[in-house]
């Protein structure tokens, strides 16, 4: 797809690509946070982490990604016809920061610290021949075994800074948006 976009940029189309880590954010579905780590619409009793301790992982808070895209679009006249940028987002150097942020936020809001469990990769292996989403999730397992870290130097050069919401604030908004706290479930009813 990117080759086709690059070819189109040579014939007059303008292309802006923003690459970012695994998405999370309020009411965001189809991502590792809402489909792997926690269960939307339910209190967080456990965090199921798909990675190994010691393996870094990159996360991107969707409102920050949207702000970066809007700021880049506002400067589109100064960008090349095929412009690509990486976001750093939230770099979890050893695979523990996201889990610990979820634990802090849930403990602060509920008084209960959720336990951490491993992700049931074995279940995905069994069910993946029958469920396309699970097969696709299994294909992405390498991202939990090997650190992939994007550098945002071009984004910083273009914008001066990367939009960045503090991790606990982003996790809190995400869990509220996913309906993981009783007050947020009741207030939306």
Would you mind describing this structure in some detail?
The protein is built from ten helices and seven strands. The protein is an alpha/beta fold. It has one domain (2-188): Rossmann fold, CATH 3.40.50.720. It is globular. Residues 184-189 have low confidence and may be disordered.
CATH class: Alpha Beta
Report, as a whole number of angstroms, the end-to-end distance.
42 Å
Taking pLDDT < 50 over at least 5 consecutive residues as the criterion, the unreliable ranges are: 184-189
Spatial extent as radius of gyration: 18 Å
| Spatial ordering of strands, largest sheet | 2-4-6
Helix content: 40-55%
Topology record:
Blueprint: H1 2-9, E1 15-19, E2 22-24, H2 32-37, E3 46-49, E4 57-61, H3 62-74, E5 82-86, E6 90-92, H4 97-110, E7 115-118, H5 121-127, H6 132-139, H7 142-145, H8 153-159, H9 167-177, H10 182-188
Parallel strand pairs: 1-5, 2-4, 3-7
Antiparallel strand pairs: 4-6
Kindly summarize this structure in a few lines.
With 189 residues, this protein is an alpha/beta fold. 45% of the residues lie in helices and 15% in strands. It has one domain (2-188): Rossmann fold (3-Layer(aba) Sandwich), CATH 3.40.50.720.
Question: What attributes characterize this protein structure?
Answer:
three-stranded mixed β-sheet, Rossmann fold, 189 residues, 15% strand, alpha/beta, 10 helices, globular, two-stranded parallel sheet
